[in-house]
Write a structure and sequence with these properties.
Layout lengths: L1 H60 L6 H5 L5 E3 L25 H11 L11 H14 L9 H9 L7 H17 L2 H11 L1 E3 L2 E2 L1 H9 L8 H9 L13 H17 L5 H8 L23 H13 L11 E4 L3 H11 L10 E8 L5 E5 L25 H13 L6 E4 L19 E4 H6 L3 H11 L1 H9 L21 H12 L3 E2 L5 E5 L6 E3 L5 E2 L3 H14 L20 E8 L2 H7 L5 E10 L3 E8 L7 E2 L7 H13 L13 E7 L17 E7 L19 E8 L2 E7 L6 E6 L2 E6 L3 E5 L6 E10 L2 E2 L3 E7 L14 H4 L2 H8 L5 H6 L6 H4 L16 H7 L27 E5 L33
Helix pairs in contact: 1-6, 3-9, 3-10, 5-6, 5-7, 8-9, 9-10, 10-11, 13-21, 14-16, 14-17, 14-19
Length: 916
């Protein structure tokens, strides 16, 4: 036992020694690898440094020479129109208030340095501390995520280099900044920056900005004013205090914080400046003058600047850029003329419009307001505080229903009393309910209730998804959104409708196509990419419905005033109404409207127009032609900018066309018997067409003709004819069904003497029955006397009055059946007779009951012009028969044709909107 224990202990110690030796070897190896790693890293660092030095030298050698004129003067950008050649005369460097360094107030210099380059007087053109922070940010956020530019570097960049975020540009910038510091003093460099920086629009330099915004020279600026100006270069247009005082104040307060942080001011000074309203010392509005050299393109160019600032890349207008825009000067001129035309019914009513290229989404022109001048302007085209009314119906109701629910343009909707889920009643502007109608009719008539019902079927999520793909950002979609929504500008509306005219492809409206840098060879395409927002079938079907809205030949179409002869176009009206509370508050009547819209498009252009008053308490009178202003403005512009060769909308292969019967649910194809007033040619996404034909107006089969009964012994051989091969015949005698057969003959056995037999034959087809054809025979018993004694008196014994017609020509009996009043006018007194079908033979009252069949309704008029169908032939001297063949059904059966479907022909309402 002890030997085993010793053995185990020794083994354990041996294993432990091996383990320790192994660990020592591993540690030794790890140290070796660490040393090697450090050596490798050091070697790489040295190599990288050397490579960087070489690369820096290569890049620096290709840097441009310093040019004092470029250093001191701002470089204006060049803007080109959509054709890529026509220069837009807008932004050029205006006459500057050049300020020498000695005249720059200390408070202004402190504000600038605290914001842009606090160590400006300590570095030699490159701030290594700030550069280190930027390197870390770029490692974590990607190259170019944060800059480390000093004021010196900014002067270089804005004078010589492009805005590319490349190693070459940064290397050249650093080299030239260092070189600039060697050739010019700090004060001279600061003076260059102070006078050439872009402040807003075409305002360059802090001195010019001081005069423009505060009406005083830079030397007289107060702390809060200097801080505001110092913060503007980061985003000149956004922080313009005339246009965006709130944003300017927020930026000013950031600068004041930085000034305190860097010891330029104390807390008390900061608080005092903070509490000074931005607008307190701005130039009064009535004393401001426009700073632009040209006002023709002012609104458009402001949108260009806003878009440039919003682009990723940090582009700046003081970098000598060439910007290719989407502006079409001819279109802009037509818009300007229209906004100044006599179409306006008074001097106060306002309007705005946006013209967008249907295919590219490029903004061709903008009408911001009737007069858009001065430093304080309101661009109604980009404003989102107006309600677009029923113009939204194809966007949230009918478009999504076609896209997601496979609705056709003929989908049945019922215009009837209806309420929101809250119980609030929804009304149409005319106070009427038109009953069942197609989605097409509901849209071109702009009926409110069908639109709300359609949105309810689609669902808020689908509706929201649909409009977001069209660039419209609504926080929520409610039931009432079907009748209007705000937070949508005319720019966005024109872009959304353009997608319908572009086969469902949407491109965000934009003003800039590409940017070319100062070197002339480097360019960036910045226009947004087109995206598929909906199926091409949806786009075309909505377009086709909106064609009807501007069709002057359609009763009830709400956009007729915008129609242009010979131009294939589509459009939608929109009116936003006041709430009941607003009507009472403002003292207005029910015909008052806040906003009136029209959006329409062709394959070339999409235009949206708003009209209304700046003060929402002033209404447009919808009971007058004031409601037509937006349509008339649209028409004037679209008619002038559209070419006679404008392409028509083309139906894609994904859409099919069928004639349906209006009001059927689910939709059914029209039958040959559907009245014309109930037929409608509608569109379907291919594969969703109905296959069932409506039977509502299908006629019953024709009645059998020529029914006759030939008696042979105790057998009656029936025969008849019919014009159709796919019918069956039900044969009955005295009300008892004998058989149903496909033949046109039948033999009945078992005739008995002294019994009257009335045979009826009814044609049946697909569950429908014709009127009956009937014939009657009577089997008379043989005479008791011998026939040879008085054979000639046999007719007398059988009431010769009845037999005389039979012995005469059969033609005599045909009118007796069809028109008994003509058979014996003197004896029968036709004025007292019933119709021939009900009482075919008053001569034989005993047969009357057998002939009448009240359970077989006959609701069609007689057709005496077809007497051949009433032929009656008796067989044998012991039988008599009468034929009761009535008229066949008329194929033009329009029973129930009214059924509440007015088809809109009894109402020609205006735009039925009720924005809630």
């Amino acid at each position: 036992m002890s030997d085993k224990k010793i053995s185990r202990e020794e083994r354990r110690k041996s294993i432990e020694r091996q383990r320790k030796n192994s660990n020592k070897q591993k540690k030794s190896g790890a140290k070796t690898w660490i040393k090697r790693g450090f050596l490798a890293i050091a070697a790489l660092a040295v190599a990288g440094f050397l490579f960087g030095v070489v690369l820096f030298a290569v890049y620096a050698s290709s840097a441009p020479e310093l040019d004092e004129e470029l250093l001191r003067d701002p470089i204006s950008p060049v803007f080109l129109a959509n054709d890529g050649e026509t220069e837009i005369p807008y932004f050029t460097a205006q006459n500057r208030e050049y300020v020498e360094y000695d005249d720059i107030p200390q408070v202004m210099e402190d504000a600038i340095l605290a914001t842009e380059d606090n160590r400006f007087y300590d570095h030699s053109g490159i701030d290594l501390i700030r550069l280190g922070g930027a390197v870390v940010a770029n490692i974590t956020g990607g190259f170019g995520s944060q800059g480390a530019s000093t004021i010196t570097q900014q002067v270089i960049k804005n004078s010589f280099l492009s805005n590319e975020k490349t190693l070459k540009r940064k290397a050249q910038e650093a080299y030239l900044a260092f070189k600039l510091e060697q050739e010019y003093s700090k004060e001279e460099i600061f003076e260059m920056y102070f006078n050439k920086i872009l402040m807003s629009g075409n305002t360059y330099g802090f001195g010019t900005a001081a005069e423009q915004f505060f009406g005083k020279p830079a030397a007289e600026l107060e702390l809060h004013e200097a801080a505001l100006l110092a913060g503007m270069p980061q985003s000149p247009n956004r922080y313009n205090p005339f246009k965006n005082p709130q944003a300017a104040e927020e930026r000013r307060d950031v600068v004041l914080n930085l000034m305190e942080q860097h010891g330029k001011i104390d807390a008390a000074q900061k608080e005092e400046a903070w509490n000074t309203p931005v607008e307190s010392t701005l130039v009064p509005e009535d004393q401001r003058t426009t700073t632009e050299e040209s006002t023709e393109y002012t609104a458009f160019m402001e949108m260009v600047v806003d878009e440039l600032e919003a682009l990723e890349g940090g582009y700046s207008l003081d970098e000598g850029l060439t910007i290719y825009t989407t502006l079409e000067p001819y279109v802009q001129e037509r818009v300007n003329e229209t906004m100044e035309s006599d179409l306006f019914f008074d001097d106060e009513v306002e309007s705005a419009m946006t013209v967008v290229d249907t295919k590219t989404g490029g903004i061709s022109a903008v009408g911001a307001a009737r007069e858009y001048e001065g430093d304080v302007r309101r661009n109604f085209a980009t404003s989102k505080d107006r309600v677009i009314g029923s113009t939204i119906k194809p966007l949230v109701s009918y478009g999504p229903a076609i896209e997601y629910l496979d609705w056709s343009t003929g989908q049945t909707l019922v215009d009837e009393e209806y309420s929101y889920s809250s119980g609030q009643e929804i009304r149409n502007v005319d106070g009427q309910f038109l009953g069942p109608m197609t989605a097409r009719e509901a849209l071109y008539r702009s009926r409110n209730i069908p639109a709300v019902k359609a949105l309810a079927e689609v669902g808020s999520d689908n509706a929201k998804d649909f409009i977001q793909k069209l660039g419209l950002d609504l926080d929520n979609v409610y039931e009432s959104t079907a009748l209007g929504a705000d937070n949508i500008s005319s720019v966005e509306l024109a872009g959304a409708f353009a997608a319908f005219g572009n086969n469902g492809v949407f491109t965000e409206p934009h003003t800039i196509k590409k940017i070319v840098f100062r070197d002339g060879s480097t360019e960036e395409i910045v226009a947004p990419e087109p995206v598929t927002a909906m199926k091409d079938s949806t786009a075309y079907m909505v377009t086709d419905m909106l064609r009807d809205a501007v069709d002057t030949s359609i009763a009830g179409a709400t956009g007729k005033e915008a129609a242009i002869s010979g131009l294939d176009m589509a459009g939608k009206t929109g009116t936003s109404n006041y709430s009941e509370e607003n009507l009472q508050e403002y003292g207005l009547d029910a015909s008052s409207a806040r906003d009136v819209w029209f959006a329409g498009y062709t394959t070339d252009y999409s235009i949206s127009v708003w009209s209304g008053y700046p003060d929402v308490r002033t209404p447009i009178d919808t009971a007058s032609n004031e409601r037509l202003l937006a349509q008339r403005l649209f028409k004037q512009v679209m008619s002038q900018i559209s070419s006679p060769e404008t392409a028509s909308f083309q139906q894609p292969d994904s859409v099919s066309q069928e004639v349906i019967e209006v009001g059927t649910e689910p939709l059914r194809l029209a039958s040959p018997f559907t009245p014309w007033s109930m037929r409608s040619e509608e569109l379907f996404a291919r594969g969703t067409e109905p296959s069932t034909v409506s039977e509502r107006f299908v006629a019953d089969p024709d009645r059998p003709s020529g029914l006759r009964a030939d008696v042979s012994g105790n057998t009656a051989n029936l025969s008849w004819s019919h014009g159709s091969d796919d019918v069956s015949f039900e044969v009955s005698v005295n009300g008892e069904v004998l058989t149903t057969t496909d033949d046109t003959n039948y033999s009945y056995d078992g005739l008995e003497e002294g019994v009257t037999y009335t045979f009826r034959v009814v044609a049946t087809q697909n569950g429908r029955r014709s009127d009956p054809a009937s014939t009657t025979i009577e089997i008379t018993p043989p005479p008791e006397e011998e026939p040879e004694e008085e054979p000639e008196e046999e007719p007398v014994e059988e009431e010769p009055v009845e037999e005389e017609p039979a012995e005469e020509e059969p033609v005599e009996e045909e009118p007796a059946e069809e028109q008994p009043a003509e058979e014996q006018p003197a004896e029968e007194q036709p004025a007292e007779e019933q119709p021939a079908e009900e009482q075919p033979a008053e001569e034989e009252p005993a047969e009357e009951e057998a002939v009448e069949t009240p359970d077989e309704p006959v609701d069609t008029p007689e057709q005496p012009e077809e007497p051949e169908e009433a032929d009656q032939e008796g067989s044998g001297s012991n039988a008599s028969s009468s034929n009761e063949n009535g008229n066949g059904n008329s194929n033009d059966n329009e029973n129930g044709n009214n059924d509440g479907n007015n088809n809109g022909n009894n109402s020609n309402s205006e735009d039925d909107e009720d924005a809630s």
